[in-house]
Design a protein that fits this description.
Elements lengths: L7 H4 L31 H8 L4 H12 L16 H14 L3
């Protein structure tokens, strides 16, 4: 079986913009975007996301998908944010009436 060299969040995305994502480059390790473990903070993925030309649509897609999910269903780095950061952003938007 051939495993694509893409970050987990872009493999399932059928969006045209996803092809431009930094995480789809051959030198990007999919494990960088996986759910950070106790000794990992996702900083490598966050650094790659900072320069990604499609960071915004990636983040918006993750928030849209996760808005009905409990915190336990959030994982990985999307749009340069950790699950905790995305939850905080969603809650802020909800309080402002933007969600």
């Amino acid at each position: 079986m051939i495993i694509p060299r893409h970050a987990p969040d872009t493999v399932a995305r059928p969006h045209e913009w996803a092809r431009k994502a930094a995480c789809t480059k051959p030198e990007a390790d999919p494990d960088w975007w996986a759910a950070p473990g106790p000794s990992e903070d996702g900083q490598t993925a966050i650094t790659w996301c900072a320069a990604c030309p499609v960071r915004r649509p990636c983040l918006e897609l993750a928030i849209r998908i996760e808005e009905d999910a409990s915190a336990g269903h959030r994982s990985g780095i999307y749009g340069g944010l950790t699950p905790h950061d995305r939850r905080q952003l969603f809650e802020l938007r909800r309080r402002r009436g933007e969600a």
